[in-house]
Amino acid sequence: MKRRLLVVIVAALVFPAQAFAHATLERTSPTFRERLPMSPRTITLRFDQYVKVLPGSVQLFSATHRLAVSRIWTDGLYLKAAVPKLPRGPYTVRWHAMSGDGHVVSGVFTFGVRAAAPAATDAFGSSGPTRTEDFVRWLYFLALALLVGGLGFRLLVLRGPLSPRAEKRFFVLAGIGVIATIDAGIVAFILRAEDALQLPFVRLLYGDLSPIAQSRFGTAFIAMTLGFALVAALLFLAWLTDRAVLLWPAFLIGLGFASGLSLSGHSAADPGSSWKSELADWAHLSAACLWIGGLVQLTLVVWPLMPEVRRAAFLSFSRLATVCVAVLLAAGVYLSILRLPELRDLWTTGYGQVLLVKIGLVGLAFAWGGLHKLVAVPAVERGDGGGMLVRLRGSLLGESMVGMAVLLAAAVLVNSKPPTQPAPAAPAASSVQR
Amino acid sequence: MQPPAEHVHWLFATGFLLLGLILIAEVAVGPEVWRRRAWRAYLWPAIAFGLGVLLWPVMVFYTNSTLHMIAHGAWAQVLMLGGAIELTLVRGKLQSKWWRLGMTSVFLVSGAAFLVHEQNSWFFQRSAFLHHLMGWTLLVSSIFPLARTIRPRSQVAATGFALMFVAVAVMLYCDRDVAPVFGHISPLAGAPHR
Question: Cβ of A12 and B123 within 8 Å?
Fold first, then answer.
């Protein structure tokens, strides 16, 4: 028995194959998001292994309903479906096939006939972001604030050497921030893919995510995951080698890759968006992260562990927070006007209502911060704020809590659809010519 | 424009082989001699940490299935974490020997990820067989980093720990092989296509 087992093991190592565990889609015709000049006769999917046809292996959808597919067959590594003559418009293909290992592999892609195709995340049947996605987005924002805001605080406010305990706590908080940023990003990507693929969990495990990875959202996910992995490495090396200078590239890379959210969200994809809206969105997010992350560092690192620098840190952070609030306000107002051209959109649309809640929370946070600026800062500057400094911790904690609530509203807002912009009036001459 | 999966496996196999050989060298000459040059102590943990960082591109660029993505994400994180802990121990920023359990958890999580992400039976095909083999090898051999934690001077634990990386490297080299003489174990897996 032992010898037989040994023979099997050796044989398995000597006679290898390079096949993947289950069939992988290698290419399709039409390709992902291809704009075709005319209707295709067939839809073709090429796999790296033989696959078997299942009932409804290839499903075709127009922008409004499912279309009949007359015949589905396999030809070697190809899965093919004959399609009727398709009029102009966007189309979604949902496919399922049984892999050689008996597992059902699935996927989705889109194409257009004389029309632009939507991203896979907007394919027919996708229902859009869910409450779970709102929650994960919120966690993402919190993690980003902990990381970018923490690094900004350490580099711009607490520039000198810290006590060992304070240094350790700073790195623990920033470390939690970077790990949570990466993991929340992965969960957000999988949730988006789940919605695009419209699959139950078990079949989602074998779902082909490559069309989602090729969408704007997917590209941002790839870039941000790689960027934050690099930030994690730099953060660790800064701690290991006691070289605070390494925090600068970590901060700048973190800040730079946070723009992935701005380059893949409403500010980049919706009508009326431009480089200005992308820049404003990024500035808005960065300022919020610096403000809220700085408050957390002030509350959890400086106050309990470095009482001797409370005064200096508080005054220095107050100056940074003033700049952050100004940027936050300017960019926020610009983006609100861009997305809600009519004032009544604020109370008549879902997006506007969420924005109203966010504005209310931002107003509360600003009022709280303003109180610190107008009452606490002068007292601390005069040097008679000894009792004030002790009481300030609770107040700073409260302000950071309100900031986190603002981020929750922002997460819901990012996942909501802004009202459609009114179409620009066509020039009279062109309409006559047509 | 992605490189074939086997090339990526070979790249990581080379990394693990290097790591294993460095650990064998340390066992052969003894830690006292090995650490006469301070940088040598950092060598293998730094390679482990670097391999963890390099696994992130694999995770994000090979998105042919959700399971595949999650498994590579898990390997990237635990390898970075394990390497980071060992580097910190060498540096002296962490003192407790129990931090070495971090490497035990790397073996356990990595082994579990291999087994969970491979849904086929052992003899379905070569890659399935190797995934099971690697999964169980890592799970069973987590005894070596555990023993290394409890008995840091144990030669058996150190040797087993080093050889484990060599074994994983050999299995990774075998995992994706395109030589024409090789074939599938199960005809269900289809014909070789490359």
Answer: yes
